[in-house]
Amino acid sequence: MFNLGDIVTMKKPHACGENRWEVIRLGADIKIKCMGCGHIVMIPRAEFKKKFKKVLVAAADVDTSTETNYLMQNQIMKPNTINNEEDL
Questions:
Q1: How far is Cα 5 from Cα 59, in angstroms, rounded to an integer?
Q2: CA angle 13, 77, 21 (to 5 degrees)
Q3: What is the mean pLDDT of residues 34-51?
């Protein structure tokens, strides 16, 4: 359906007029980023599924040279990762 890094469209556009969003967090809540102005919104998964329309561009197919507000996969912090093995 949708994955981390996908560019999706919603039923209503953002206040800036853009209707392209990047999925930057998945979980019980979904965090999406407006591709027009860069505003980040976190909404519950159930609400996201109601407002979700379709995936415009899969994460693997995004042209990062034309997408100014797109976060690369290595810039998105993965949840529950441990950077130092000393913390174990």
A1: 5
A2: 10
A3: 93
Average pLDDT score, the chain: 82
| Long-range pairs, 58-66, Cβ under 8 A, ≥24 | 58/3, 58/6, 59/3, 59/4, 59/5, 59/6, 62/5, 62/7
Taking every pair of C-alpha atoms in the chain, what is the biggest distance, in angstroms?
47
Sign of the torsion angle spanned by Cα atoms 15, 20, 25, 26: positive
Q: Write down the pLDDT at residue 88.
A: 46
pLDDT of residue 12: 92
**Cα separation of 88 and 75, whole Å?**
24
> Which two three-digit tokens encode residue 86?
């000393």
Question: What distance in Å separates the CA atoms of residue 62 and residue 25, rounded to the nearest whole number?
Answer: 17
> What is the model's pLDDT at position 78?
61
